[in-house]
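To: structure subgroup
Subject: Chain for Friday's discussion

All,

I'm putting the inputs and outputs inline so they're searchable in the archive.
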Amino acid sequence: MEDSKSKANIVSRLKTIKRNSGKTHNQIAEETGLTNVYVAQLLKRQAQLKPETAAKLRVALPCLSEELLDEMMRPPLRSYDPNLIQEPTVYRLNEAVMHFGESIKEIINEEFGDGIMSAIDFYCSVDKVKGVDGKDRVAVRFDGKYLPYTEQKSEHMVSRQQRK
């Protein structure tokens, strides 16, 4: 597992490569077939680059070394800096989820039943759209698999069946 110093070094190198390419996350996403947020996650070592996507990323960012591509294909240490909440955009996103979360949960339960939205089988994108007033707006889309809670019946608990 990578330590935080080596992760910071790798992320710094990846950010430099992206910056020097002159490309946006959206442009890289279009070239690779990924979402813009997933591209950002890859470049922050918060997601694992899959071998079938590595070649496309290499074309999009030709300065990526084999060493960095290999590192990006290793399972990452998915973490965050607890001080990140102080960054205004992150704070407002958190505030929006906290403010609307209970209502979102209620609608999920009403539409799907007792369950949750996965954050593992999950897609996220950020888009720039025009509001009805013609002003720029930020559209954040969460697209997560529905996961129902299960009734915990003893006969379905495999580990208990193996004890017998």
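Points worth raising on Friday:
The two ends are 37 Å apart (CA to CA).
The mean pLDDT is 93.

D.
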